[in-house]
Amino acid sequence: MPRYIDVHRNLKGVKLKDIAAAHEKDLKVQNKYGVKFLKYWIDEKSETAFCLSDAPNREAPSKAHKESHGLVPQETYEVLEGS
């Protein structure tokens, strides 16, 4: 299954606890979209969050995010993992 990183920008005042709460909401709807949310990161200074997921296509993580908390990413990249 393809792996994606999506980027959420301009999250005014966002903190790690906020992204953790959003991630928990994602986990509740992920199966509906065939997504497996794996990890997330946040840069509080730039108010940007990053989400890693396995999904059947580029649109599926965004659809899950939209339903679960409404924070739709501005960018989504298909990525390959190396060491």
Write the layout of secondary structure elements.
Blueprint: E1 3-8, H1 16-29, E2 36-43, E3 48-54, H2 59-68, E4 75-79
Antiparallel strand pairs: 1-3, 1-4, 2-3
Please describe the structure with a list of short key phrases separated by commas or semicolons.
single chain, 83 residues, alpha+beta, Alpha-Beta Plaits, 4 strands, 29% helix
Brief characterization of the structure:
It is built from two helices and four strands; from the N terminus they run βαββαβ.
Write structural notes for this entry.
With 83 residues, the chain is of the alpha+beta class. The chain has a single domain (3-76), classed as ORF SCO4226, nickel-binding ferredoxin-like monomer (Alpha-Beta Plaits). 29% of the residues lie in helices and 31% in strands. Strand 2 and strand 3 form a beta hairpin. The longest helix is centred in the N-terminal third of the chain and has 14 residues, at 16-29.
Helix content: 25-40%
As a percent range, the share of strand residues is 25-35%
Oligomer classification: single chain
CATH names the topology as: Alpha-Beta Plaits
Name the shape in a single word: globular
Distance between the termini: 19 Å
- Helix/strand structural class: alpha+beta
Largest beta sheet: strand ordering = 2-3-1-4
CATH class: Alpha Beta
Helix run count: 2
Instruction: Write down the domain tally.
Output: 1
CATH homology superfamily: ORF SCO4226, nickel-binding ferredoxin-like monomer
Radius of gyration: 12 Å
